[in-house]
Amino acid sequence: MTTTTVVHLLRHGEVHNPEGILYGRLPEFHLSENGVRMAERAAAWFAGRDIAALYSSPLERAKETAAPVADEFGLAIRLDDRLIEAANGFQGRALSSRSLTDVQVMRRLYNPFLPSWGEPYTEIVERMVDVVKLVRKEAWGREAVCVSHQLPIWMARRAAERKRLWHRPDRRQCNLASVTSLTFEEHRLVGVAYSEPAAGLYKPGRTVPGA
Questions:
Q1: Rounded distance, CA 84 to CA 116, Å?
Q2: Which of 8, 25, 45, 157 is packed most tightly, with the most Cβ within 10 A?
Q3: What is the CA radius of gyration of the chain?
Q4: Secondary structure element (H or E) that encloses residue 129, with its range
């Protein structure tokens, strides 16, 4: 009989960020009240599933998103640096369309295929694949949740679907508190699914920097 294991990649909820900066890996960025509700919606979405392990990025917004899942299943949250947000040279800045006239910004945009402004896509994929393999082994025959961030999850999905890694950031399908599910039969990936448990809490036309 074939053993099926599912690893769910859960993106964190909305962050309190009134200044609209690209927060990246900066500390002390917590979920907003709406973000807490998103995390609760995600935990409810997992209810009834056979979740055996729970991992999280060490950043506050990810740990706070993992907390309701931990409560739902009585699991400890295990932190793993490989799930952390991608490094970004624009971290700490408030970016807008006018930023394209900023010499300090433009000089970092010379290679969108790497990308030149942050952690290489190939390195993000490598660490995400490593942690998925670890979690799959621990949850063998059951399911697991890994709380991470938009770009690492999107890179893991594009690699899983054998698509090129460079892409348009505005076309990522990885919304707040969304779930990207990787289904394995033994060690073979057989399916990629996407869900938005918190869709009813999204704010039309609003983007969240540094997610």
A1: 19
A2: 8
A3: 17
A4: helix 121-138
Which helix (H) or strand (E) element contains residue 56? strand 51-56
Residue 208 banded pLDDT, cuts 50, 70, 90 = very low
User: What's the full length of the chain, in residues?
Assistant: 211
Cross-strand pairs, 79 = 56
Q: 125-134: per-residue pLDDT in tens? A: 999 999 999 9
Q: Give the residues across from 8 on adjacent strands.
A: 145, 181
Considering the domain boundaries, does residue 206 fall inside one?
A: no
pLDDT at 164 over 80: yes
Q: Is residue 138 part of a domain?
A: yes
Half-sphere exposure of 211 (CA within 13 A, CB side): 27
Q: Please tell me the chain's helix, strand, coil percentages from 3-state DSSP, rounded to the nearest 5.
A: 35, 20, 45
- Supply the DSSP symbol for 169: G
CATH number of the domain that residue 148 is part of: 3.40.50.1240
Q: Which of 87, 88, 84 is nearest to 60 (CA)?
A: 84
Rounded to an integer, what distance in angstroms lies between the CA atom of residue 209 and that of residue 194?
21
Tokens 């090129």: give the residue.
Answer: 164
Query: Which residues constitute the domain of residue 176?
Result: 4-201
What is the value of pTM for the model shown?
0.93
- Whether 110 is in a domain gets the answer yes
